[in-house]
Description:
Number of domains: 3
CATH superfamily of the largest domain: GAF domain
Number of helices: 14
Amino acid sequence: MSQSLTDRERSVLEAVIATYVDTAEPAGSRTISRRFGLALSPASIRNIMSDLEEKGYLYHPHTSAGRIPTDQAYRLYVDQLMRQTAVTPSEAERIREGLRGERSVLDELLRRAAQVLGVLTSELGVAGSPTLDEAVLERLDLLQVSAERLLLVLTLRSGVVRTIFVEVPAQMAAEAVVQVALVLNDRLAGLTLREIRQSMPARLRDVGTDADASELLNIFVQEADDLFDVSDGGVVLGSTQPISGQPEFATKEGLQGLLHLTERRDILRTALTRSREPGLTITIGAEHGDPKLAPFTLVTSTYRLGPLSGVIGVMGPTRMPYEKIVALVEHTSRLVGELYE
């Protein structure tokens, strides 16, 4: 346990982590002695590193004399050893510049936020769209795209737009589709998506329409839980180019693993959903509970848009400069909320 570490062990562990983050090479006792002035001989540092390995904080790959931090070491570091830093004025300006442009479309703002975070951190910028149960419906549109399919377009007051396909049993008269859209807007606009799902039958009970429109309204009543449940939160990714330059992805296998992960939006969505607790969240390696995410750390911070909230952050190797990344992620999440408002 971390409480059992001595001051010397903590100092050596911090030095090993700093060295490995900087160099991506296992840290040896002589390197630690030269770089950090710990008033310890290389032999003493070597003994302390051996003790830290026994306690689960370090390991040495193959026959290398150097040590690499474990997930447990990074967890101790972010919880107890990491120093708070602030973004530099130039970083703050680059973030603000990266977020410039149209801000009323949330997904576009999140895409730019993920992009600028990726560039500044050399990691993969990620963002989770807000959970939308409390989002207020501004209007909806129904578009006929085929004989047996309609496109439902939900425009929410927060600026988010979501589209859902609605399957219908047969060709609906265009007049019936227009009539149903008018009824749904009249009865549902101004309600949250949660309220719509909970009260749809009662709100449409006394509507008088022709046969086609009545059949279509009944589809909305029967499928309200699915049609108005868009609260899972989409995943927005920045470019993979910054992170692909990391040593961890220098091999073909490492790069393929990264690209495969970016294609698995379901895995990333689950990881981001677990990070929706208010404030900063750092999930390291095996803490994800998914072997595909074990090589990665996810650093996210929540942003708020009135009653809505989502997360912004970066994903990268567990070997990352945590202080810098935490400061950049928190600053960006705050700025996204401010700009969008």
